[in-house]
């Protein structure tokens, strides 16, 4: 089983490392701007870094679920590639937001587009599996004949 989902697992580990990296930068910002836990407000610079990291954390479960559903039920390679683009988009978002709130838009929009695409692919794959399992109708197989 592990060999069948190795690409998804690799992207998952990479994204977990990215989340840790963002959290580390919040910790560094806390020291730099003298904002000690549990406080979450302080200088605008700290607040931008903190909000960027929190937003990434808020979207992380959605990313993981859609990545795995699209990979397991639609296509692992495509889902993996989209997962890598999502990680890049989150990188752009985090560093853009850390610099200025207006610079977060490109990364945010790209990451939302990737999540939407992963959701659609996962839903299509699950629907196809459902139809194949319960109605003996494999849409994906029929489409491959064209």
Describe the structure.
With 146 residues, the protein is mainly alpha-helical. The chain has helices at 6-33, 44-73, 76-99, 105-135, 139-144.
Determine the mean pLDDT. 94
Query: Number of helical segments?
Result: 5
The outline comes out as: elongated
User: What is the percentage of strand-forming residues?
Assistant: under 5%
DSSP helix fraction: over 70%
Radius of gyration: 19 Å
- Beta strand count: 0
List SSEs in N-to-C order: HHHHH
Outline the low-pLDDT stretches.
none
Distance between the termini: 31 Å
Instruction: Please identify the oligomeric state.
Output: single chain
Q: Which structural class is indicated by helix and strand composition?
A: mainly alpha
Report the sheet with the most strands, covering strand number, pairing sense and barrel closure. Answer: none
In short:
The protein has 146 residues and is mostly helical. It is 82% helix and 0% strand.
Task: Supply database-style keywords.
5 helices; 146 residues; 82% helix; mainly alpha
Set out the fold topology.
Elements: H1 6-33, H2 44-73, H3 76-99, H4 105-135, H5 139-144
